[in-house]
């Protein structure tokens, strides 16, 4: 059976690895913008073929379809989904693991996602306002004050979020000018004609986590939780990235999220799938994820949605699945997900991403660097390696400007973290490597924080005021 995999990052390397491991004997064909070493290895091992081209261009995808005639397709990244590449495959009569353009709007437009939640009374929703101009958004913040989160109104690679504390807007003129510049920077990340540019939401705080749910339009299956580490540097400081690491487990939970919260989150995502169908008239097929936060306001609270697997969350979740995940991907694409069963390795996993100097501030500085690694030694220490933004050029691995590698270890958090530290020693470059050593080592703090939040939102629940916020506008009505 032939499979066409579209995408070129570590997430797609994980999916390719799952297809290669399957007992179904899939022949994997790849379409990427560069030769990903991990995907290339799978393509060669399974007897497929690798095509290089723009993964966002429908005409290029159609050309590859004609050459391959795949039995089903897998679209990994969000941008091809936003541009309707999954629709292209379906129009050619090919089942595909990947949301349609209309369904992928749940990630592409944060404004649409919030509107959907309020229209269908989906729990875990935050109050929000959208702005079509940067000037109006800045004016709103400066005039009204209050604690808010300012974001691009559309997908911007997980970047651009600015949290503003309640008195920050009333400080010095320098602070006001800096705030205006910050809003301008956020607005520059998303500028789609006819769409709002900035969304402002009420600020909440708590441990973050992600639940991915597989769906074929009829059946849904929740996967284990994961937590992403967004900031570039140790202890959660520095600029936001696509994710410098992730943890998952034990079992289907995280140490600071209990089973009741897991089930509540699953219900939120299922209700979102239903709402998407009601709005678009199309079944959601693929994976949808709720990027969540445990808050005093709601308990499980939606920060945003993914219309694909998170990256690096996929590297934390999928290697823990002991079932034939390649077959599960096929079941999802072909409408037979009811046949699937998820069997887990109950132990946790940790992922650490490795990038080169310059990331995430300067893609140019982080590009064109050589990376060398000893895969055999890393395997001896129990680590798996998935290749991200790194290309095979001749016999060399050359960075493309983002996270080059995702290294995975399974075991209790201490053991897995120690194994990863050993494995990273076998990676070198002609420049400095950027990675975090604290991933998976702050679990105790998050457990304590979650307990405090849990006490507060459970009290709200008993009093019947779960999700109820007080307006803090000096004029008596912010939203």
Q: CATH superfamily of the largest domain, called what? A: ATP-grasp fold, B domain
- Largest sheet properties: 6 strands, antiparallel
Percent of residues in helical segments?
25-40%
Overall morphology: globular
Low-pLDDT residue intervals, each spanning 5 or more residues: 472-477
Distance between the termini: 53 Å
State which percent range the strand residues make up.
25-35%
Task: Determine and state the CATH class of the largest domain.
Answer: Alpha Beta
GO biological process, one term: purine nucleobase biosynthetic process
Domain ATP-grasp: 114-334
Pathway: Purine metabolism; IMP biosynthesis via de novo pathway; N(1)-(5-phospho-D-ribosyl)glycinamide from 5-phospho-alpha-D-ribose 1-diphosphate: step 2/2
EC number: 6.3.4.13
Précis, in short:
This protein is an alpha+beta fold. It is built from 16 helices and 25 strands. Its EC number is 6.3.4.13.
């Amino acid at each position: 059976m032939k499979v066409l995999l579209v995408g070129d990052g570590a997430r797609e390397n994980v999916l390719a690895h799952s297809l290669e491991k399957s007992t179904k004997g899939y022949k994997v064909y790849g379409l990427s913008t560069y030769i990903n070493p991990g995907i290339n290895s799978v393509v060669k091992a399974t007897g497929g073929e690798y095509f290089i081209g723009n993964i966002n261009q429908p005409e290029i995808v159609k050309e590859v379809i004609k050459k391959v005639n795949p039995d089903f397709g897998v679209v990994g990244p969000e941008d091809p989904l936003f541009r309707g590449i999954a629709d292209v495959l379906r129009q050619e009569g090919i089942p595909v693991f990947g949301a349609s353009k209309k369904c992928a709007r749940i990630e592409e437009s944060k404004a649409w996602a919030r509107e959907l939640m309020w229209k269908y009374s989906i729990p875990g929703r935050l109050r929000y306002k959208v702005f079509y101009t940067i000037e109006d958004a800045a004016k709103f913040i400066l005039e009204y004050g209050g604690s808010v989160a300012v974001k691009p109104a559309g997908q911007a690679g997980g970047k651009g979020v600015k949290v503003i504390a309640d008195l920050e807007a009333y400080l010095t003129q320098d602070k006001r000018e800096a705030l205006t510049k910050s809003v301008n920077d956020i607005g520059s990340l998303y500028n789609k004609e006819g769409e709002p540019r900035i969304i402002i939401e009420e600020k909440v705080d708590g441990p973050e986590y992600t639940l991915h749910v597989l769906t074929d339009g009829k059946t849904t299956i929740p996967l284990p939780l994961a937590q992403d580490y967004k900031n570039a540097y140790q202890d959660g400081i520095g600029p936001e990235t696509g994710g410098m690491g992730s943890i998952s487990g034990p079992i289907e939970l995280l140490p600071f999220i209990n089973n009741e919260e897991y089930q509540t989150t699953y219900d939120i995502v299922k209700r979102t799938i239903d709402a998407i169908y009601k709005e678009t008239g199309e079944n959601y097929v693929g994976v949808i994820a709720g990027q969540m936060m445990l808050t005093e306001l709601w308990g499980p609270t939606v920060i945003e949605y993914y219309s694909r697997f998170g990256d690096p969350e996929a590297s934390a979740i999928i290697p823990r699945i002991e079932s034939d995940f390649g077959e599960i991907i096929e079941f999802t694409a072909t409408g037979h997900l009811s046949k699937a069963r998820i069997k887990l390795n109950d132990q946790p996993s940790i992922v650490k991403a490795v990038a080169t100097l310059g990331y995430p501030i300067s893609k140019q500085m982080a590009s064109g660097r050589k990376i060398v690694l000893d895969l055999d030694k890393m395997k001896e220490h129990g680590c798996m390696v998935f290749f991200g933004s790194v290309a095979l050029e001749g016999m060399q691995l050359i960075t493309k400007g983002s996270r080059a590698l995702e290294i995975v270890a399974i075991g209790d958090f201490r053991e897995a973290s120690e194994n990863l530290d050993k494995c990273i020693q076998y990676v070198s470059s002609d420049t400095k490597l950027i990675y975090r050593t604290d991933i998976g080592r702050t679990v105790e703090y998050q457990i304590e924080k979650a307990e405090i939040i849990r006490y507060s939102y459970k009290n709200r629940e008993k009093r019947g005021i779960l999700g109820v916020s007080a307006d803090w506008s000096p004029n008596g009505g912010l939203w």
